[in-house]
Amino acid sequence: MITIEQLKDVKERTEALHRYLDIDNKKVQVEEEQLRTQAPGFWDDAKKAEAQMKKVKTLQNWIEGYNEVKTLADELELSFDFYKDELVTEAEVDDAYNKAMQAIEELELKNMLRSEADQMDCVLKINSGAGGTESQDWASMLMRMYMRWAESNGYKLSVANLQEGDEAGIKTVTMNIEGSYAYGYLKGENGVHRLVRVSPYNAQGKRMTSFASVFVTPLVDDSIEVTVEPARLSWDTFRSGGAGGQNVNKVESGVRLRYQYKDPYTGEEEEILIENTETRDQPKNKENAMRQLRSILYDKELQHRMEEQAKVEAGKKKIEWGSQIRSYVFDDRRVKDHRTNYQTSDVNGVMDGKIDGFIKAYLMEFSDSEI
């Protein structure tokens, strides 16, 4: 049975969310934004209209999320009072408490995602490390993990490019994950993921270590201004491999984009290479590749901002992009994040996409150090 202090904590956190989220102001905002959708010719510019509808939906989601928390908090207080009159059981009060706490924690977590990029869809790319079949198999396991996570959270996922391994697994995969706050939740997955297991590919049954890199960037839309210099851009086309019938083998629908990027801050140059075989339509694949390029350029600017912020806040713990972040040790039944020290023994659950504990631990520790 919960205590009066636990009930008080729920009420205080609910009131705090009302203040932090500025719910009263959001209600006024949503009315104003909805009025804009009723203007004559609103749908003449489809992309602009969709961006406006997305803005309205985002505001509504915040209000609905808070309303759910408030309703559950009120129901808990009612259950607590009913228990005094022996109208409900201890179990029913505890159940009401658990529901209220879950809703509060989910909204508090979402409130940590305040930057413009956090709200965006994302591009998630996995590259296998050195080690051939071992690492390629590990990369495919990570791909499955993120696909399961996206599915369980109701996100739309599409594979933009996939290169299969020589014997098993994959060499690389690029996936678009679309849905509210996809980038905000997955940005902490950036880095090197390390697997330790008894290898099924080793005849001696030795314990092997494999690595794979995960890169997460915001998937920008037309509302984000990103400068692409046409003179630095070049295209190749190629025949897509894999299943898909005769069209895939005969038509050069796959596209390869090369962009000679020059860092505006350091002057350093590098080639950005993007391949897209998502559809059989070459113009569509070009459009998708350009969207990924704009996402990469936007992310580079975002990382520069973060580096500048890190210099200003030198006393704070710095987030190292691209460093080894997590170890998955199968025979010890342990998955540990080295940045937050969060760990779990539910290895099977993690590989089935249950990574919310790692996501929450990352956001709890690092959200206040971001822009």
TrEMBL record:
InterPro entries: PCRF, Pep_chain_release_fac_I, Pep_chain_release_fac_I_sf, PrfB. This is Peptide chain release factor 2. It comes from the Bacteria. Pfam families: PCRF (PF03462), RF-1 (PF00472). Its main location: cytoplasm. Keywords: Cytoplasm, Methylation, Protein biosynthesis. Residues 239-255 form the Prokaryotic-type class I peptide chain release factors domain. The modification N5-methylglutamine is found at Q246. Methylated by PrmC. Methylation increases the termination efficiency of RF2. GO terms for molecular function: translation release factor activity, codon specific. The keyword Cell membrane does not apply. Gene3D superfamilies: 3.30.160.20, 3.30.70.1660, Release factor. GO terms for cellular component: cytoplasm. Belongs to the prokaryotic/mitochondrial release factor family. Peptide chain release factor 2 directs the termination of translation in response to the peptide chain termination codons UGA and UAA. It is found in: Cytoplasm. SUPFAM superfamilies: Release factor.
